[in-house]
Amino acid sequence: MRAQFVLSEIGVGLRRNLTMTFAVIVSVALSLALFGGSLLMSDQVTTMKGYWYDKVNVSVFLCNKSDAESDPNCAKGAVTDDQKKSILGDLEKMTTVIQKVTYESQDDAYKHYKQQFGDSPLASSLTPDQMQESYRIKLKDPEKYQVIATAFDGRDGVQSVQDQKGILDNLFGLLNGMNWAARAVMALMLVVALMLIVNTVRVSAFSRRRETGIMRLVGASGFYIQAPFIAEAAVAGLIGGTVACGFLVLARYFIIDHGLALSEKLNLINFIGWDAVLTKLPLILATSLLMPALAAFFALRKYLKV
């Protein structure tokens, strides 16, 4: 097979169906940009989970005098010194689950509340004796919260067991929902791109049916006849994939590093690095090359009798 002939046929085919080729490039670029974006979103959620779950604490709040009057869990009165020692002793025994236990007194809780909510009208009416003592527990595995809840929830002297992870789960659930929505749009765009590729190949094969007929008469092989059409689709897809890679690189640069500069404005979020973006680019380029080529190959088996 002469490479020069194949290349010339690719150029002719792309120019002859310029409008449809452009549509293929755009649809492939958008669908693969969404594909890459959904992969990066998954990496971002995973990174944020690892960062924030490592910081969450389980809090065992102890009963105070106010709770004894209003909370059924504290009906037996405020926590006693013996109960506190018993709770702490049991926590210290759970070395396979717990990494660190920190005691927070009522005065400490009051100071922390004043620091965080000092402007609140409620802050001026609170006193230290209304605050709750607590044990702040750092888990080795944040997923093991239920072990602590089962062991201490409902115990004498314990008002409640709270897990900060539950708050984060709502956030990550929202992010995962957005990610799945992006994947649904991506799947729709991929279907549109495949339909455009198949239609473009079909039109291209129909417009050159005379040439392919002559080639069959002179004994050209099926692959020799199909190769220019497959290559046309692959080239158009590769251009679209390159554009998609450009979108992702520019998005990372302008949204996170510069422009919006979210990395500077949202210091609490641990954003993914350039390595996560760069590792996705080869996958996008390979997909942009193989997907149109395979679509064209199977389309030609139906629309080009060779």
TrEMBL record:
Record domain FtsX extracellular: where: 56-161
Keyword annotations of the record: Cell cycle, Cell division, Cell membrane, Membrane, Transmembrane, Transmembrane helix
Name of a matching Pfam family: FtsX
UniProt cross-references to InterPro entries, sorted A to Z: ABC3_permease_C, FtsX, FtsX_actino, FtsX_ECD
Residues of the ABC3 transporter permease C-terminal domain: 184-302
GO cellular component, one term: plasma membrane
Transmembrane regions listed in the UniProt entry: 21-41, 180-201, 222-255, 281-300
Cell cycle keyword on record: yes
Bilayer topology annotation: Multi-pass membrane protein
Subcellular localization(s) per the UniProt record: Cell membrane
Domain of life: Bacteria
Gene Ontology BP annotations: cell division
NCBIfam families: FtsX_actino (NF038346)
Function as written in the Swiss-Prot or TrEMBL entry: Part of the ABC transporter FtsEX involved in cellular division.
Similarity section: Belongs to the ABC-4 integral membrane protein family. FtsX subfamily.
Self-association and partners: Forms a membrane-associated complex with FtsE.
Protein name from the UniProt record: Cell division protein FtsX
